[in-house]
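Can anyone check this?
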Amino acid sequence: MSECCALRVGQKVPDFELETFEPDNGGFGKKSLAEFEKTGKWTILFFYPADFTFV
């Protein structure tokens, strides 16, 4: 049985782009995983699958 899109520990996450809220200017923007990787810092991916409230 193969899994379509599951990732395992140690596998690289494919690049993606998300719409974000930018508190500095009170507007929306876009960020990609590639942008975060360029900083050389750790990145934590957090998904909240319930509703559209800010976490």
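Reply from J.R.: I decoded it. Strands lie at 17-22, 27-32.
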